[in-house]
Amino acid sequence: MSEHRLDDGAIATGVPKIHFDDVRIGFGKGAKRKEVLDGVSFDVRSGEFVSVLGPSGCGKSTLLTLAAGFAKADAGSVEIDGSPVVGPHHDRGVVFQQYAIFPWLTVRKNIAFGLTLRANRHNKADINAATDRYIDLMGLRGFEDALPKTLSGGMRQRVAIARAYATNPSVLLMDEPFAALDAQTREFMQELLHEANLEEQRSAMFITHSVEEAIFLSSRIVVLSNRPTRVHEILDVPVPMPRTAESRTSPEFIELRRHLEEVMRSMSSFTHGGTP
Ligand SMILES: Nc1ncnc2c1ncn2[C@@H]1O[C@H](COP(=O)(O)OP(=O)(O)OP(=O)(O)O)[C@@H](O)[C@H]1O
Ligand SMILES: [Mg+2]
């Protein structure tokens, strides 16, 4: 694995960045009760980019919500840097599928938003420097003063990702951030995010439906089962880093894609009563 960030206190102790231990959660009461996560355990280690892949409705977003501190598990524990998650915290940068940027703020102000919230800990020069860095990293130079309504979907997601990075989070939590984009933009965004994260060395948990996207971006992939959900398997991605457009046609990539597509297909045929 590549070098870790210097400010990462967990390295010395080997404490995982994100730790899910036998996490259980369900919704509803009585006969309407639906068990969703049925004992899910896995870690995201320091500097790792881990994708979570699983059938629709298996609880991927729920898992991310638990790590973000927006909800609480019924049983089991969720820890970040060795401490239980008790609520939302600025050490987690969250990016959602829907464009969660403020329509009334410019690109620059959206990216700086989290930093200005913590103004007591950042002076203006630091905020400007961080904002500039992520404007460049996400290829938004020239659009600093644009309002979101004038941007394409891909560019809006770049603003959302830049904003998440800018607060210097301990972990990045992303829930299908590219799902609404067309195929070509999506590949471009995967490449941009991969390059950005190689440079930044953040620990990340990335939710996706896309086998291709999971392989391209990740060092490991956690595959979840159908509901009630457990970990089906955890796979190392043997495709060398850095990944480029050519990586997608490498034998390792193709072999892992074949395997994962088969796994996903078998799960979806289970969900839909055996139809292919
Ligand atoms: N707050 C809630 N109240 C009731 N049910 C919920 C709630 N949150 C999630 N669920 C249910 O839990 C299950 C898992 O939802 P979740 O959104 O986590 O799935 P997912 O794997 O992200 O699905 P998708 O791939 O479609 O995004 C679904 O059946 C959903 O209806
Ligand atoms: Mg979801």
TrEMBL record:
Domain named ABC transporter: residues: 18-251
Recorded GO MF terms: ATP binding
SMART domains recorded: AAA
CDD domains assigned to the protein according to its UniProt record, in alphabetical order: ABC_NrtD_SsuB_transporters
Coiled coil: none
Family matches, as InterPro entries: AAA+_ATPase, ABC_transporter-like_ATP-bd, ABC_transporter-like_CS, ABC_transporter_ATP-bind, P-loop_NTPase
UniProt key word Transport: yes
Keywords: ATP-binding, Nucleotide-binding, Transport
UniProt superkingdom: Bacteria
PANTHER family with a match to the protein in the record: ALIPHATIC SULFONATES IMPORT ATP-BINDING PROTEIN SSUB, TAURINE IMPORT ATP-BINDING PROTEIN-RELATED
Record protein name field: ABC transporter ATP-binding protein
